Amino acid sequence: MSQKLQPPKIASRFLQWFCAEELLEEIEGDLHEAFYFRSRKYGHLRAKWLYFTDVIRFFKPYSFEKYSRSKQYIPMVKNYFKIAVRNLLKRKGLTALNMVGLSVGIASVLMVSIYLFHELNYDKHVPESEKVFRMVNQYRDQTYTCMAFFDYYGTTADGQLKLIDFLKNYPEVEQVSHFVLNNSPIGPNDQYYVTAGDKKFVLDDFLFTNTGLPFQEIFPQQFIQGSPENAFADFQKIILTKPLAVRLYGGLWEKEQVIGKSIQISDETFIVGGVVEEMPGNSHFQFSAIVYQATIPSWGAYTYLKVQNPDQIGQVVDRFNAEVDLMYPGRSEDPLQKGVKAVALTDIHFTDGMLYELKPTANQAYLLTFGIVGIIILLIIWTNYTNLAIATYANRQKELGLRKTLGARTKDISNQVMTEAVLITLLSMPVSWLIVYSAMPAFNELLNIGFDRTDLFHPVAFLYLLLILIVTGLISGIYPSVVYSRKSLVGLLEGKLNNVRNAGKLNFRNALLTSQFFMLIVLVSITLIIQQQMNYVQSKEMGFEKEGVVFFEINGAEKYNLLEQQLKQIPEIESVGNGMIPGQDMYNQLTYKMKGTDITFADGTFIYASKGAFDVLEIQSDAFRDIESKKTVFVVNRTAAKKLATAKGISENELVGQTLIAEPEYEFEGEMGYEKVIGGIVEDFDYFNLKHNSQPLLIDVFHESAYVYDVLIKAKTDNWVQTIADIEKAYLSIEKKRPFDITFLDNHLHQIYQKEKNAGILTAGLTGVSMGLAIMGLIGIVGFITFSRQKEIGVRKVFGASIKDILFILNKDYLIMMVIATVIAAPAVIFLANKWLDSFAYHIDPGLKTIGVAGLLTLAIVMMVVISQSVRSARSNPADTLRSE
Amino acid sequence: MMQLGYLEETVLLLIMVMGEDAYGFSVSEAYKEHTGKKISISAIHTVLSRLEKKGLIRSQMGGASEERGGRRKRIFTPTDDGKSVVVELKRSRQQLWQKIPGLT
Hints:
The complex is a heterodimer.
Chain A: H1 9-18, H2 21-41, H3 44-58, H4 65-68, H5 70-90, H6 92-120, E1 132-139, E2 142-144, E3 147-148, H7 157-168, E4 173-181, E5 192-196, E6 199-203, E7 206-209, H8 212-218, E8 223-225, H9 228-231, E9 237-241, H10 242-249, E10 262-265, E11 268-276, E12 289-292, E13 300-307, H11 313-322, H12 324-327, E14 337-344, H13 364-394, H14 397-405, H15 410-427, H16 429-447, H17 459-486, H18 489-494, H19 508-539, E15 549-553, H20 557-567, E16 573-577, E17 590-594, E18 601-610, H21 611-617, H22 627-630, E19 632-637, H23 638-648, E20 659-668, E21 671-682, E22 697-702, E23 710-715, H24 720-734, E24 743-744, H25 745-752, H26 754-788, H27 790-798, H28 803-837, H29 848-875, H30 878-882
Parallel strand pairs in A: 7-12, 9-11, 18-22, 19-21
Antiparallel strand pairs in A: 1-2, 1-13, 1-14, 3-13, 4-7, 4-13, 5-6, 5-10, 8-11, 9-12, 10-11, 15-23, 15-24, 16-23, 17-18, 17-20, 19-22, 20-21
Chain B: H1 6-18, H2 24-35, H3 41-53, E1 57-64, E2 72-78, H4 80-99
Antiparallel strand pairs in B: 1-2
């Protein structure tokens, strides 16, 4: 009888998978027999089907390993646990070191995860955030994050609300709101005296809105006291955040009835309408209080739409652009107006290059760098613990052999190895958590992310940590568990270290080592490049003098002129000027062209500054010579001069005396644009922060400025405290209302790069952690390999090898791995570095040299580890190592 | 006295009837024949292991056959305990039978 027909394979495989080993034969046999008879009785199809259902019926605790062997199972786990603990205690020093290493590593991974989580979830806390969009306006070559009011500064309450009312009529639009933050680029940027009861503060982070309830609907605030309906019922209300309420009314404010109290802001009186929770740190705007009043103190506002369905936003934008003239008469005729766009709320943090953004956007290069560093650390941890487990079990082969002799099966051995691996990682959980908890404030400050540390108590945080640790345990256990559980009984009992001797060949462990070297080189290179770039940025010639320069704000030319007279009486003060403080963020650019050419440039930054500012910054030009008689002169910087000269087809020096037309698309008194005669050229200087530099600058220089908002002072003094006191005295004698707030220019410029510097510090720190971890792992593995080659070393020595020869042989393999790792690392590093450096206007070139240096540095460390671990073996007496066989 | 369910009792008796040829599949077939009711092989296996745990039957691996794809059977035989339980069962039932009026 040639009965070839077999039961369905999938079913029998499934059975083999779940069924306990010792039950499998009888069950399979019975099912097979049933299948055999059934297929004769009912036909194959039916028999197959019945086989399936039978297998599924067996899928129950009875067939599972755990239950069928329940008698032995629990004691065995207890035994694994006991043995694991004993092994850990046997080598207390090593265990402690490993625990610390693992905890620090896991903590670093957790921090990086928190950072990424925080950044990637920007504004996601807003309910239905996917339906909220910000309306932005494209004008000339720039995109403005705010919308202008219909009548700009001619502000009436109705004029400000015209756009809001206009958009509300769209059927797709659920709600529209707008606001301005005092501190935002388009806000008044004032400092307000706030008086509440007998307390007086200076505050500057107000949010101004005249669309209260719509704001509440789009960005729901959590009211601790009061309700939105009452708070936004009428104007002249102020809604405090909790921290401000504490500042104004003390820690026990909740016991008082805060609502209805009056607060004086400058000259105006506001009634407290409610107290709300602060916005989370990952919101694209933040404030300490909402000021609800009829008019917003600006020429425009940040405008947000909530639509019924996110897909409809395209329709809304298209319709608005099509009928824009109804809202802004004549705008469709204006070639500079390029229409509005909508930016999804959750994209705001990731949209670069827009003007007047409220908060610095996410630096995607950082997200990428930190993400990669986090993954590298995790990989290093995994490879480390894999290596460590291989080495540990090499010394415990006899134990495993004995277990096998007593009936442990492959499964049991791998279970033991796995249990132990997971146990070790889990032990480091409390320490890693504590590290993260205590490092959080510093981390927060370094990256300025505003993460709430109490979030670490959230169950999700614990689960995540647990997950990382369990996965780490499982991954580091896989390889040793496979290797040792499959080893033959004899092999185990002999304790032979087969397949570890062939170092240098392509095997699993060497691949691990090479990848670890690769990761180290990437990390070290990136750290070096970041440091180099930051040094470069700080030491770069800025084209002006920043030492001994201070600046502060002032309100108006009248006060400035009075102050200047007084300041000139102070002997230490060398020069005084206004209008031009370097280190600016980009602002709106205007168009310009040479008279008589057709090429119009759209990237001009116009500056109005006094000649004094050039004296303070020590920027010279021939054009300034007769400024006293000429009253004013127009100069361009070298970048602009190059562009203009090329357009006109003349040399840069020939530009002097030629006429430039600014904003040629506008009509001024019958002419298109307004003409300016170029009086001279100044060399390039870094007016913006280094991310935006080498822009064309077009500068009106005045002998005496008509509009003044700031004062720049250059002083040469040995006693800055005294000099600043003198300046303050002069200031306070003229300005009675605004407080005196002076800044050193060099500090100011340093601060602009603080974020970059901090990121550099953090990367260096994380690199240090990974270095430490990798070295620890390396010490373990090198010690193990050297130990396993002791006999070989002994034999070599017998045949006359010197210590030097032995060390060379031991090091050679690592050298090859290092070279391979460096070669693979180079493209990865260059890719990452360029991505990061691109965000700087001036940057270093991440040459291969840096990678070479990183490679050598890593190599030096590796060599040190190898030599320190192998020198003892190299020195050992061959008689000791060879006598046992 | 040991508590036995109806299914356990039937299976135990069947094993005794079948002598040296009681294993999962054959018991399930015999059960079907005897009671006329269907039972899945997995249910028989559960009952057999329960009886074994109670010490009423013992098992050993027996011969393989082609119908089984070359796999061995687990042959179940009653233990002394098993036998005495059955005897005891019969005795107690008998007592009850005899007390039923008008049946004999």
